[in-house]
Each structure stands twice: as C-alpha cells, then as structure tokens.
Amino acid sequence: MLLSANPGNFQSDQERAARRAADDLWAEAFRQDPWNDVLDRWNAQEVLAGGTAPLRTESHYDRAKLSAALRDFSVAGQFTDPLRLPSNLVWMTGERDGKFVTLQASMRDAGFPGTFPLVEGAGHRLLVEAPDAVAAALDHLVA
C-alpha cells in the first residue's frame, strides 16, 4: 500500500534535477533554519494545503538525520518499474490532494498495476487526516 506516493518516473533529466535541487534546499533548511520557520514553510506547501499539520516538537527530531533523509531518499533518485510491482498494490490518495490525484491518474493510465482509491475529504497526510480509511484499506488488502 502506497499513500500519496510519487513513483519517481520523471519525464526528463531537467525535471529530475529540479526535484533534486528542491530536496537539497529543504535538507539544508531542516539542518540549519529556525525550527518553527522551516515547519511553517514546509506546511505552507501547496501539496499540504487544506490539511491539519501535526504538532512537531524540535526536541523529538534529529535535524541532521532529517536533512540526510531528504537528500538520501529524494524521489529524484527513485524510479519505479510498473512491470515489477505486485498486482494487488493499493495507491491511495486523498481527494483534496490535487497534485497526487493527478499523479495517481497518470500512474493508472500508464498501466501501473493495482487499485487507486481516493479518500473522500482527505488531503495529502492520509495517516493524520483519514486513519480509519487507511486502516480499512489495509484490512481489505490483508484479507
């Protein structure tokens, strides 16, 4: 099960490089900028609009690890081969998550296997905004 997932299938090297640069900027911000400032900017991103931002206290995080994760696990370094994915994969997206609704449709139209449910009333943060819908989908998948 993938929640609001980007498979990393960029259309050009320029698109991939732009994503890498954006992730590097976020990595540096999480490493050194004042905590509340970087969280405010992070939560103001269009992809997170309309949702409730979880409370995140700086003392609960290792900022160097957050920074490294943004660099090391950037979607810019990922590629998903649809032919290698299991057919029972669930690509779940919140209906208010415009960017990922569009991405989900393009994955479905490109022949990625699985099902593509939209979660009514939810945005990008499905685990925060719609935990019951995620749990129900997991129950169904396991059954």
Structure description:
This protein is mainly alpha-helical. The protein has 2 domains: 70 residues; 65 residues, no CATH class. Helix content is 47%, strand content 6%. The chain contains 6 helices and 3 strands; from the N terminus they run E-H-H-H-E-H-E-H-H. It has a 3-stranded parallel beta sheet, covered by helices on one side. Helix 4 links the parallel strand 2 and strand 3. Helix 1 runs antiparallel to helix 2. The longest helix has 20 residues. The protein is globular and about 45 Å long. The model has no long low-confidence stretch (mean pLDDT 90).
Concise summary:
This protein has 143 residues and is mostly helical. It contains six helices and three strands; from the N terminus they run βαααβαβαα.
Instruction: Give the neighbour order of strands across the main sheet.
Output: 1-2-3
Helix/strand-derived class? mainly alpha
Which descriptor suits the 3D outline?
A: globular
Q: Give the DSSP E fraction (strand runs of 2 or more residues).
A: 5-15%
Q: What is the CA-atom radius of gyration, in angstroms?
A: 16 Å
SSE run: EHHHEHEHH
